[in-house]
Amino acid sequence: MITRVKRRYDIQITSENGLHTKTFELDKTIIKVHGLLLESNRDDLLFYRTTCKIELNREEIFPEGYAGKLLMTGVNVSPNDRYYTLGGLEPGNGTVRLECKDNTHPLIAFTAFRISLYLDCEITPSA
What we know:
Blueprint: E1 3-13, E2 19-25, E3 30-40, H1 43-49, E4 50-56, E5 59-67, E6 84-89, E7 95-102, E8 113-123
Antiparallel strand pairs: 1-8, 2-7, 3-6, 3-8, 4-5, 4-7
């Protein structure tokens, strides 16, 4: 039986104007990735200061410098409409690479924060 699940992967942004990269291993039961979104414990820093690059199976989904705010959602959006649709990409080698850069913004001072990448995945139970 095929099931849809949400998976969360976190990266810590610890230095001002720094580039932070993390590669995540997906569960072997994931057969497709249908969507993604970004969330943070400091939405203001993600919105104003962060650019990202996201790769799935070494394939670039969002290029370097992509504004993190374009992959965020708000509570006024229906839970069923919150994910950026990827159309059921196969995970291939089972890795997701998230590269986030903090950029100076004149109105928002830096403090360490977390960015969470959520994936809407299709899984099949392991036999």
